[in-house]
Amino acid sequence: MQVLSVTPEIFPLIKTGGLADVTGALPVALAAKGVTMRTLIPGFPMVMDAFKKKKAVYKYPLLQGGKASVHSVQLAGLDLFVLDAPHLFDRPGGPYGNAAGADWPDNWRRFAALSQAGADIAGGAISGYMPDIVHAHDWQSAMTLAYMRYGKAVGTPSMMTVHNLAFQGQFGAGIFGELGLPTAAMALDGVEYYGGVGFLKAGLQAAWAITTVSPTYAQEIRSPEFGMGLDGLINMRSSDLYGIVNGIDTAIWDPETDRHLVSNYTAASLKARAPNRAAVEDRFGLDRDGSPIVCVVSRLTWQKGMDILATAVDGIVAAGARLAILGSGDAGLEGALLAAAARHRGRIGVVVGYDEGLSHVMQGGCDAIVIPSRFEPCGLTQLYGLRYGCVPVVARTGGLADTIIDANEAALAAGVATGFQFAPSDGGALLHAIRRLAEAHASPAIFEAIQRQGMKTDLSWDRSADKYVELYRLLLSKRVA
Ligand code: ADP
Known about the structure:
Elements: E1 2-6, H1 18-31, E2 36-42, H2 45-48, E3 56-63, E4 66-75, E5 78-84, H3 86-89, H4 107-122, E6 133-137, H5 138-149, E7 158-162, E8 170-171, E9 192-193, E10 196-198, H6 199-206, E11 209-212, H7 215-220, H8 224-227, H9 231-236, E12 241-243, H10 274-284, E13 293-300, H11 306-318, E14 322-329, H12 331-343, E15 348-352, H13 356-365, E16 368-371, H14 381-388, E17 391-395, H15 398-403, H16 409-414, E18 420-422, H17 427-441, H18 444-456, H19 461-478
Parallel strand pairs: 1-2, 1-6, 2-5, 6-7, 7-11, 11-12, 13-14, 13-16, 14-15, 16-17, 17-18
Antiparallel strand pairs: 3-4, 4-5, 8-10, 9-10
Helix pairs in contact: 1-19, 4-5, 5-6, 10-13, 11-12, 11-17, 14-18
The structure holds adenosine-5'-diphosphate (ADP).
């Protein structure tokens, strides 16, 4: 089976979030199951610089305002098609905006071009290559499915994966004329969205199947509260909607071999976490005592519930826990958390910034990681927490609800508990969960059982890849012969 994946990001070449981890890991996990996945990505500078021999397999005299070509390359163990379009992608800064973080005003054009190339490849533009299925990720590649629907590849099964419904790619109606779609596409059941053009909306409308990155989030986005304006459409498509939880890279995230850690350990040697814990105490200026250290590794945003955390910090300290917070984002939230650290010296420490190595040490040394998200399509930090014996304390939403088993009496008795859940996402419920955590922490036998159970959880991509394969097969069976 040949699957063409279309994505703006792929690990390890271009990454701004969990999307890249998924698109980078999936081809490897699928290969083991007899599925060949090739991935079309934009020719950003770091991608173009990574391969020397450039030989186009397809050329566009004109694609969204300039010359473009598609290159077939193998990089970092991945089979790629790279869309080289210097007028669109050869720019400094991140994949979506300049170095100051402002989005490029022509992002619609950049990702329409990526999508058009995806649909052209699906329609047989590259000699000797014809995918059986096309799999698009997020709004930046969603239009692939619209171009397919109104073009040659209308009969090719397609899948749209939503990694975060908050990002939709909404643009004014004025761009429609430049997309190269038939007039009929500017309709309620096409690309039209609240009077403008909706890229993700168009993909959701055209996809043969829609997936998101956890079963609970797949249900939540059917409601107005989580649907971000798309719940009506998602409900209409609910019979084609699936939730498949992400895996993690268990080679990179392995406490037994992780080079970022001060001390490596396994579930059988939890005491060897102590030097990591001491390193966290040093780095965050925390008192040295036996109380639980609860950490946060997060974007500091409303989605992540960081304002909820900020209102609960005094209570968390009063409950006897210490807090180590690593994050960056909203300036107001940074300020509120830094003020909390100043109020509670020795009990709360904050490092503002992005520090991959430190995030590993925190997972390897802290007792718990708290994730009070308002919504969470899948979430990765709770999965790393499970693997590192850093007990997740999570809001019961999206992927957090699907991956953590709450340490209630029944789960503890059955020996299946892996963390603590709370609902709703507010300060009172969060505090209650922290108190339950502190209570469990006071009984080493109970706490270590929860840690070990988490460390036993299968977090590999293998199971998720099976589910994608199953879905690809289902789509193939729907293809008209
Ligand atoms: P999202 O993609 O919504 O930000 P996820 O939990 O899916 O949330 O993934 C976040 C990833 O970014 C994780 O790998 C996490 O460890 C990492 N991360 C977030 N903030 C920081 C930070 N300040 N320093 C280091 N790593 C971070």
